[in-house]
Amino acid sequence: MKILVVDDEEDLQELLRYNLEKEGYAVTCVPSGEEALAAVKRLSFDLIVLDLMLPGIDGYEVCRSLKKETRSSRIPIVMLTAKGEDSDIVAGLELGADDYVTKPFSPRVLAARIRMILRRRRKEEPASQATVKIRQITIDPIRHKVSVKNKALELTATEFALLHFLASKPGWVFTRGQLIDSVKGSGYAVTERSIDVQIAGLRRKLGQAGSDIETVHGVGYRFKE
């Protein structure tokens, strides 16, 4: 699998190249956002490790540009940066980044997170119509049915879409903006405030199983892993 590393520090490029090639990846390194966008147009990549503090086009703009293009919108992006404030993390996730790693970092931990993202991405498409069974909850996306302990629940289209999206990716943290994108077309005028209302209603209908939907303060929500 091919990974693009975008960072203007040559030493860090070589550190990442060395450790990722040890994991069996083919690694391409570029030092700027402009070169990253050009590389993605020429070549195909399975994942991008993207620094935010770049000369010229910064990492946020690179991420925004990649997510707008059909050809590159599905490439997972791991943001790598010294900017570790909650607002920076939220901004990166809102743009569609799959993970956010702050410097200094452990190359082994980064490699493990990359493996997890790629493994989940490979499973994501074929699993989209599969029945999800997690603890007490069963979700059948084909029949559009949800049950808890074999008792059927009546959910709205938006509640169903939110539950299916979260439960299909346990442990993943999603911002309200990402959750809005996941339920577009569900027949409900969705806003960030309405996401909170929908989650609250969903938890009530799930009863004790509602605790599986966890609030990640300052970011959004996740389904308990």
Overview of the molecule:
The chain has 225 residues and is an alpha/beta fold. The protein folds into 2 domains: 2-124, Response regulator (Rossmann fold), CATH 3.40.50.2300; 127-223, Orthogonal Bundle (Arc Repressor Mutant, subunit A). It has helices spanning 10-22, 33-42, 59-68, 86-94, 107-124, 157-167, 176-183, 192-206, and strands at residues 2-6, 26-30, 47-51, 77-81, 99-102, 132-134, 137-140, 145-148, 151-153, 174-175, 213-216, 220-223. A 5-stranded parallel sheet has the order 2-1-3-4-5, sandwiched between helices. A hairpin with a 2-residue loop joins strand 8 and strand 9 (151-153). The longest helix has 18 residues, at 107-124. The radius of gyration is 19 Å and the shape is elongated.
